[in-house]
Design a protein that fits this description.
The protein contains ten helices and no strands. It is mostly helical. It has one domain. The radius of gyration is 19 Å and the shape is elongated.
Length: 206
Amino acid sequence: MGNKFLELPKEKQLRIINAGMEYFGKYGYKNTKTDDIAARAGISKGLLFYYFKNKKSFYLYLYHFCESVMLEYMQNQQLNKLTDFFEIIDYGAKKKIEIITQYPYMMNFVMKAFYSQKEEISDDIQTLIQATGNQTLELYFQHVDQTKFKEGIDFKDIYQMLVWMTEGYLLDKMKTGMPIEMEMMMEEFEKWKKMFKKMCYREEYQ
């Protein structure tokens, strides 16, 4: 991608970004037509390919864009002041809601990308996920107070279980075609969080 896209007004950039994430998030990489994305964004297909070399280039740009948005909130000064594992989890959940409000199709796009298989883009995405996964985890929990946990419990394992439960919840909604209601999802997440806190924190910190 050249600099032409970045020279566009932010509103137009956002329109193109959201259109791409909407269609790729609904139909996956293979079944998405760039004509539909362009029409949704209010531009021509030729102009889309003027900003981005091809469909794959645009898809990878969207993935890197999602990474940069997530990285920005992980480098927030407020997060760096938090040391309690579950307070960090709360912070992340609230920030994700803010992100989804601004980019309503990001969640579906990232989920589709994460589970992409046997598509032209799959190997590239899995390589990117593996390269950034551990780095992201270390950055997110760099100040966590591990003394609050019961002996033998690794906070990374707890985080991974919460991720799996969240992904399972989202996948179930996607498979059944049911809408993802953030308020309901956060209620469920709050139950899981309280359960894990009771299970793995020392009694004086519960």
